[in-house]
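[agent] plan:
  1. take the single chain provided in the ticket
  2. run structure prediction with default settings
  3. attach structure tokens to the ticket
  4. add a short note for the reviewer (M.T.)
[agent] executing step 1
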Amino acid sequence: MANKIGFMHPAFAALMKGAAGSFEAVSRGDYESDAAMAAAHPDLRALVVMGGGKMGAAEIDTFPYLGLIACFGVGYDGLDVAHANAKGITCTNCPNTNNEDVADHAVGIFIALLRDIVRGHARVVGPDWSQGERGRLGPSLWQLKAGIVGMGAIGQSIAKRLPAFGIPVSWWGPNAKPDLPYPRATSVLQLAKDNDVLFMAGRADENSRGIISTEVIEAVGPRGYIVNISRGFTVDEDALIAALKAGRLAGAALDVFWEEPTPAARWADVPNVVLTPHVGGGGRGAIEKQAKLVMENLSLFFAGQPLKTPIAA
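[agent] step 2 finished; step 3 output follows
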């Protein structure tokens, strides 16, 4: 059987080109559906997918000879790993490849929010800048305390950056980590009550769905801020928008959303937000690391060798 790989997202064009020298690369974009792709290439042995894209039991079953599903990215919440494993299909992801880039982005969009940088730029290049106009006046960074939800690789990378701005850090996560130099709160709610800004950096799985609830948002309060660079489903987006409109939350910086792309109209009249299109992990270095790791796992799979980053169901 051929060493044939299906690339399931348009963003994989460069990866496909690199793979073509060693493997037969097939693009999902050339077909109307997964079924059409599988019918044209029933001998596909591996798929490369986006971890947040849907690859459930039905999609997996469409491809009868799969042995590997390689996620390009750290999160794999869209992939039914248990079903794949039950069928003898190994799944891989790219852990610890983009945490520094995501942390940079998290801190960057928070500073942009706090210092009103986006609207400041618009005033300079538009007709609305008058002498002495300074825009919205927020607190100084050194006046704030930060709570981080989730202290994996991304949470720890955020935590390393914040003290440079004079911001003390505490955190909450489901598992104690006694080696960390930051105090751990007793709950997400307590973390929200004790801090001025809440960074959502928890693992993108069902345990974190809706963890930033209405109660947590209200605890952050009218002088507080929320930053989400995990997954959109971790935050009650309706409650967040309602709190922002009512002034019960000072501001929010989001790189992820319930629905992606998020409808522009949903945010048109929401005050004090900075929004980016799920690009937090998109630094060139991170993309290069992930591409290299995906290719290593593919090569090992077709060589019959143990894979570098298998996901346990």
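[agent] step 4 note for reviewer: The two ends are 27 Å apart (CA to CA).
[agent] ticket updated
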